[in-house]
Structures are given as structure tokens and as C-alpha cells.
């Protein structure tokens, strides 16, 4: 018997209802039903982790056909703020996760200001909610990546084998970030950095808890899949006119596939930031008090400990655990 703990009372209620629906009061034994159950839960958790990014991307598509270009930047910024507040008010995100999102926002906005100044891409003019010509909603796009990273980290209760030393990851991630600026003045080192990232994570795999099953996946494969997914989202955003690359100014065309490499490298920065605030735990370990979250909502006190009838495994993220052994920062 293991204990599943979720970060919010809302998610706790959804989890209980989902398990009742999927298992119908008994353990599924047929291989097909087991596979379908795990597949559906995997997709549902991914969709749940992408909630903020999906809503923001949908808002861009709607604004493209309904909001005049002169007001579009401000409208998208206001919508992004309201979405972020809604995530907190309705218990879909915790304050600690918001801190990660804001960190991504600051790091992303700094790069946006520089890159637009250098002509790497551009935004529609207009609006008052801008910084150095960059609309503030641009930072929320990086925040959406941060939101996904921290939510998927706990929803799938990620554990890692052979995770690289944090200081090595920090050095490579800093090199990646600086190269986004420096390649305008110095030789582009992205391929060298890409090779370093591959070497860094070549032996690293992560354990992903879905519903009852736990699957193992190389971290490089996961980062590659996420980079491709972001590239698809970027095509939707540029089609909606959120921003444009120089090749898209005359007429829209798909974003060059080479941008997948840029997103892959950017994910290295994302992984470094998230695991700096939420240290990567080895497989088989239990999360500690410092990594715990508190439930939100009037019934939080009784909703955070959910029995799971699955096989014993790594203890999931504790919402309000009893004092335990080692604290992690």
C-alpha cells in the first residue's frame, strides 16, 4: 500500500474521481485494458501539465481573428495575467510553482528584449504593456514552459538515474544562455553546446509514474519530444501573429525545423532552473519535507493522503508529510 499525495485539493478530487472511473472498483488485469488505462492517464496528465500553455496558445489563436492588431499585445498580456491568477485562485497551481514560472518569465523577457533588438524576430507594434518594445505577454510564453516543467515533475513523480552533477549542468546551461546572446558577436557555439548536453545526459534516465505502472525513459528522448512539441506550438503562435521571424514577414510560412535545436538547448536551461529549485531525486527515494506542498481549499486537510492500490514503488510527492529524515532545498 502506497500513499499518493497531490499538491492541491482540486487535483486530489480529480485524482479520486479518475481512479474510480478508470478502475471501476477493481484492478484491471487484461493486458489491453492495462495498456489503454495507462495510455489514457498519460495523455490526461500531459494535458493537465500543459494547461497554462494550451490556454495561452488558444488565446493567441482567438485574438488573431477577433482583436484589432493595435490592441492585440495588451489584450494577450491581460489574458495571460488572468490565466495565471486563475490557476492560483482555483487551486490548479501552488505559490511555490508560481515562483518558478516568474523566474522563467524574467529569464525569458531578458532574452526577448535582446533578440528582438537584434532582429531575430519581431512583434506587432502597439500597446502600452511593453518593455523596450517587447510586449509583456512574451515572458508568459517562457512561463508556460516553466509551468509545464514543474507540473509534469510532480504529476509524474519523476525520479532519475545517473543524473549529472548540478554544478556541471549549471555551467552548460549558463553557456547555452550566454550563447543566445553572444552568437551575434562571436562564433555560434550551439553545436558544441548541443554535444555537451548530449554527453551530460547520455546515461541519464527518468522513472515516470503514470497510473499504476512506472516507465523508464532516457532524459534526452524526453527533452527532444518536448522540443518538437514546442516547435509545433510555435508554428501556431506565429501563424496567429503573436510574433514573426524575418522569413515570415511577407507571408507566413512554417518555422524552420532547425528551431527545434534551439528549443532543445533552451530546455537545458529549463531543466537546470527546475532542478535547482526542486532537486532531482534518484529512483527509489522519497520526497522530503522541503519538497512538499500544501493543499489548497477548505477540504485540504483531509484530501491530501490518497491510498493507492497499485504495487509498491517510489513514494510520490508529499503534500503535507510528517517530519521526515533529510531535507532538500
Low-confidence stretches are 1-6, 288-329
What is the SS-derived class? mainly alpha
Strand count, sense and barrel status of the largest sheet are:
3 strands, antiparallel
DSSP helical segment count: 11
**Which range does the strand content fall in?**
5-15%
Termini gap: 28 Å
- Estimated radius of gyration: 21 Å
How much helicity do the residues have?
55-70%
Architecture overview:
- Helix content is 57%, strand content 7%.
- It has helices at residues 9-23, 31-49, 51-66, 69-89, 95-117, 137-155, 166-182, 190-201, 219-239, 259-277, 300-303; strands at residues 2-4, 130-131, 134-135, 159-161, 205-209, 214-218, 306-308.
- It has a 3-stranded antiparallel sheet.
- The protein is globular, with a radius of gyration of 21 Å.
- The two termini are 28 Å apart.
- Residues 1-6 and 288-329 have low confidence and may be disordered.
Name its key features.
329 residues; mainly alpha; three-stranded antiparallel beta sheet; two-stranded antiparallel sheet; disordered N terminus; disordered C terminus
Helix and strand arrangement:
Elements: E1 2-4, H1 9-23, H2 31-49, H3 51-66, H4 69-89, H5 95-117, E2 130-131, E3 134-135, H6 137-155, E4 159-161, H7 166-182, H8 190-201, E5 205-209, E6 214-218, H9 219-239, H10 259-277, H11 300-303, E7 306-308
Helix pairs in contact: 2-6, 3-4, 3-6, 5-6, 7-8, 7-10, 8-10, 9-10
Amino acid at each position: 500500500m502506497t500513499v499518493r499525495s497531490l499538491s492541491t485539493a482540486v487535483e486530489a478530487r480529480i485524482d479520486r474521481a479518475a481512479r474510480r472511473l478508470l478502475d471501476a472498483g477493481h484492478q484491471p488485469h487484461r493486458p489491453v485494458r492495462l495498456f489503454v488505462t495507462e495510455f489514457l492517464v498519460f495523455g490526461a496528465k500531459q494535458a493537465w501539465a500543459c494547461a497554462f500553455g494550451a490556454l495561452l496558445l488558444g488565446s493567441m489563436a482567438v485574438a488573431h481573428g477577433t482583436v484589432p492588431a493595435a490592441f492585440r499585445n495588451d489584450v494577450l498580456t491581460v489574458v495571460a495575467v488572468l490565466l495565471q491568477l486563475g490557476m492560483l485562485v482555483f487551486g490548479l497551481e501552488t505559490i511555490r510553482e508560481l515562483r518558478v514560472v516568474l523566474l522563467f518569465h524574467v529569464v525569458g523577457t531578458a532574452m526577448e528584449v535582446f533578440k528582438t533588438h537584434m532582429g531575430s524576430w519581431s512583434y506587432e507594434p502597439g500597446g502600452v504593456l511593453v518593455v523596450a518594445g517587447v510586449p509583456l505577454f512574451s515572458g508568459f510564453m517562457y512561463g508556460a514552459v516553466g509551468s509545464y516543467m514543474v507540473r509534469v515533475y510532480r504529476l509524474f513523480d519523476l525520479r532519475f538515474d545517473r543524473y549529472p552533477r548540478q554544478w556541471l549542468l549549471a555551467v552548460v546551461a549558463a553557456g547555452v544562455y550566454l550563447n543566445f546572446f553572444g552568437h551575434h558577436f562571436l562564433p555560434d557555439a550551439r553545436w558544441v553546446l548541443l554535444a555537451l548536453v548530449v554527453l551530460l545526459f547520455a546515461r541519464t534516465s527518468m522513472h515516470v509514474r503514470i497510473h499504476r505502472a512506472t516507465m523508464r525513459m532516457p532524459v534526452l528522448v524526453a527533452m527532444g519530444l518536448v522540443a518538437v512539441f514546442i516547435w509545433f506550438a510555435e508554428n501556431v503562435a506565429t501563424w496567429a501573429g503573436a510574433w514573426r521571424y524575418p522569413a515570415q514577414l511577407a507571408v507566413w510560412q512554417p518555422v524552420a525545423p532547425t528551431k527545434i535545436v534551439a528549443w532543445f538547448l533552451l530546455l537545458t536551461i529549463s531543466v537546470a532552473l527546475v532542478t535547482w529549485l526542486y532537486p532531482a531525486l534518484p529512483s527509489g527515494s522519497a520526497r522530503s519535507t522541503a519538497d512538499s506542498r500544501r493543499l489548497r481549499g477548505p477540504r485540504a486537510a483531509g484530501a491530501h493522503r490518497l491510498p493507492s492500490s497499485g504495487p509498491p514503488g517510489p513514494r510520490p510527492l508529499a503534500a503535507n508529510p510528517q517530519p521526515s529524515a533529510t531535507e532538500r532545498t
